[in-house]
Amino acid sequence: MPPHTDSTADFTADFTEAPTPATTTEIPAETSADASAETSADASAETTERSPRVREALTSAAVLLATLAALPAVAVTLPNTSLNVLEPARDALGITNDGLPDLVRAAGLTLPAALLAVPVAAVAARRFSARLVFLTGLLLLGGGLAAARLAGSVPILAGGRVAQGLGAGVILSALIVLVWERRGRMLPAVWAGTFTAVLLVAMPAALYATPLPDGVTPPGDWRVAFGPYPETAAAALIAALACMVLRNRDSLPVPRHTERGQLLLPAVPAAGFAFLSVVTTYGWSPGAQLVVGCIALVALLGLAIVGSRDATTGSPLGCAVVMVTVGLLTYPVAGPLAGLASATAVANGAAFPLIPFAAAGAAAMLGALLAARMPRDAARGAVLGGHGLIIVALLLSLATDVASGGWLLMAPLIPLGAGAGMALAASLRGAGVGAALFGLALCLPAVLTGQLLVLSLQAGRLQRMQPITSAQQQLYGLTAGYRLWLIVAGVITVLLAAACLRVTATPARASRDTRPRRTGTPTSAPTP
What we know:
- By secondary structure, this protein is mainly alpha-helical.
- It has 20 helices and no strands.
- It has helices at residues 8-15, 21-75, 86-93, 100-107, 110-127, 130-150, 154-181, 186-209, 230-245, 257-264, 267-279, 286-308, 319-329, 331-348, 355-373, 379-399, 410-427, 433-464, 471-503, 507-510.
- Helix 12 (286-308) packs antiparallel against helix 13 (319-329) and helix 14 (331-348) crosses helix 18.
- InterPro entries: MFS_trans_sf (IPR036259).
- Residues 1-53, 508-528 are annotated as: Disordered.
- This is MFS transporter.
- The chain crosses the membrane at residues 57-78, 103-125, 132-150, 162-180, 187-209, 229-247, 263-284, 290-307, 319-338, 350-370, 382-400, 406-428, 435-457, 484-505.
């Protein structure tokens, strides 16, 4: 008897009309078995088809959670707020006033260590499992936090801060690879928005945890300045474990030897700059520090332009140049502004204005998501428009009086965040994982360069005002130096926008599509 192909319900109706007992006893058994087998096969096929989609969605959710948790854990380790806890730290560590410069220097080792780790970790994350590299970075970060909080001497404290920086650099590189493995459009945008936001909020969050001493409120735990917000690292560790459980079957192409060489290209200048940034703290004049910062800026811009023309590290929309923009004009602009706002709040007996900086972070995320939703043809305009918003923000900062109130800070901070987030997310459209990692290797040195420039300008202004006899004079000198930095930053932004215009002007490069598809051989670029 041929197999029956009707459903079970249809067969039951036919069965009730069967004329003979033989039919009623034999046909239902065979046909019911066939129908049940067919139903089971359909259900199994539907489950098999649905299972990869569910697993893919869960894997993307785990990577999203890792992005939202790990980037804040990295950013809060970068600020150096040891000046706010010098006295309790000196007493607890048993050092004299002569040892305080070493303490401040030890607290500032995180950022130089992070920029050293990024190129090496980028190669490791491409060569080995990005999840294991990510977990290794978190363990380094957690160990550094524990060492800094339990340190009983300056050398151990310095080691803890170095471990935090190394872990931060490893986490950043591995996280980019994890995001690019998903081959989506929104995850890179979320990464760009979150990365920009945490750079804007890092110093305000650190100052909120370790405020300036006001002479009235008893100082808090001095160890918080050297290992703030450990709960962020714990949340990132949970996300890393979720990524380990939900392994992604999709993978990026194996890196070629040329890609590994290009990713390691920034390592040598970054190492030299990190060394000089530490050496300049040993009594170098503000003018000498300014010269080092200018040389580093020229070197970074040259590397970004050259890398943008490379087949491996280049991108259609100048990702490397925009990474330098974000590094120079987020943390080095928002950080000193937060310090001035904190000093003003202490002088006026007011609370630290954290909300304007949080609004800037939210604007960065919104700008990045908006850039991801734009048509591909509008992405180049979004990159240039983001630079335009940054220029507007710098002009508004020059017109803003920090002492007039914290809410007024929203005027420059919101366009700064929106412009930086939009430019970075738009520049990642069509960028491969090699281009993103190369840009990241330039971003952290740009952060350190901006810090060196603004601090040298402020120190030079204070030096010209000697002798300083009051805190009000010191605040005025710091504000004047910061305003000079805003003018310099505006000029730098114009130059960076011109560089973006130059590297994205070639029609063949602007129209090149390196995006992966859901079918066929996967490539290393996210889908815009």
